[in-house]
Structure formats: structure tokens, C-alpha cells
Specification:
It is a single chain. The chain is mostly beta strands and 184 residues long. The protein has one domain: PLAT/LH2 domain (Lipoxygenase-1), CATH 2.60.60. The chain has a five-stranded mixed β-sheet with strand order 1-5-4-7-10, with no helix packed on it. It starts with a strand and ends in a 14-residue tail after the last strand. The C terminus is likely disordered.
């Protein structure tokens, strides 16, 4: 697949969202409460939603954030701009959602690592600039409908992005783990 850059649509989330629970998925999926596992794995999606909760350090208007979507083999599928330089900053303790449209619809099994990269375009003290993320949730959907969680993480902070350490790699779990005999 060719590398493609996309711009994401950003929105404020006034209500806090709870991180997705893979345990809940593992309970509901085999019971058939979310549809058949085969149908869930066969579904393709045309959007990826990234929801961030900023910690004690805000994301400034002169900074950008991108997400590199990789295949399970590590090949780059697409690079999405989640926040561009010049767009309004993300205040401390705020929740923001950016949605990227995929160039080609993909199944959840076609996603490998997702690399979030921060870049400061610099003020005079840009080397000291940083951004703290408390939570990130990544979900797949079709035009904003039928959202399915792909991966999430949280911490206090989950990541402190700096110019010296600008990336966070998130790895979706391998599904279907409900059929893995080692997990029974």
C-alpha cells in the first residue's frame, strides 16, 4: 500500500469517555452479544478516531501531531495529521477527538502498530516544550457509525512527548484471542 497523508477532523469532547475494556469484548464476543466474531473480523472500516486526554502540559498551536498507521508486518499504510501547526492548541486536562479518513477501507486485522508523533515548530524556547497525554483511545468506524475500539492506553501520564522523545507506539492486541488455548 502506498503512503498517504490525510488531515484529521478535530472535535472537543465535553463528556469524558471511559477507556475501552478488552476484557468486556472477550466476554461479549463469544456470547454473540456483539455479532459473530467472524463478521466482526471481516468488517472493513473507512475512518480511524483518535481520542486524547491531555495531562498537565498542553499541546500548543505551534505543534503538530501525526499518526502513522502500520500493517502487522510494519509497513506504513497511511500517515494522518491529527493536529496541524496553526490549529488551536489543546488545553491542559481537555479531551479532543481527531478523525482520519482512510484512503482504502481496512479490516481491524490489517492494523499493526500505530505511531503517534509530536513535533514542535518552535518558539524561542521550543527545546523545553512538551505535551503530556493521560489517555488515548483509537477506534475504527464507517463515517462515524459503528465504532469499534482498536487500542487504548492510560497512565499518569501515559506519555510525556518532548523533542528528544517525540513518539508513542501503540499495538492492538491480536484477535481473536478468545480462541487461543493458551488464554483459557
Amino acid at each position: 500500500m502506498s503512503k498517504m497523508k490525510t488531515a484529521a477532523v478535530l472535535r472537543d469532547d465535553t463528556a469524558q469517555r471511559k477507556p475501552f475494556s478488552w476484557r468486556l469484548l472477550l466476554i461479549l464476543l463469544p456470547l454473540g452479544l456483539l455479532g459473530s466474531p467472524a463478521a466482526a473480523l471481516a468488517q472493513t472500516y473507512n475512518q480511524v478516531q483518535f481520542t486524547f486526554t491531555t495531562g498537565e502540559a498542553d499541546l500548543r498551536d505551534y505543534c503538530s501531531v501525526t499518526a502513522t498507521l502500520q500493517s502487522p508486518t510494519g509497513a506504513s499504510i497511511q500517515v494522518a495529521t491529527l493536529k496541524a501547526v496553526g490549529q488551536p492548541g489543546w488545553p491542559t486536562y481537555s479531551t479532543k477527538t481527531a478523525t482520519a479518513t482512510l484512503a482504502t477501507p481496512l479490516k481491524s486485522s490489517q492494523f499493526g502498530n500505530i505511531v503517534i508523533t509530536y513535533k514542535s515548530q518552535g518558539s524561542f524556547n521550543a527545546s523545553a516544550d512538551h505535551w503530556e497525554v493521560k489517555t488515548v483511545s483509537i477506534a475504527l468506524s464507517n463515517n462515524g457509525q459503528g465504532s469499534v475500539a482498536l487500542v487504548s492506553g492510560s497512565g499518569n501520564p501515559l506519555k510525556r512527548f518532548t523533542m528528544a522523545d517525540p513518539s508513542l507506539t501503540l499495538s492492538p492486541p491480536t484477535l481473536p484471542i478468545v480462541n487461543d488455548p493458551k488464554r483459557r
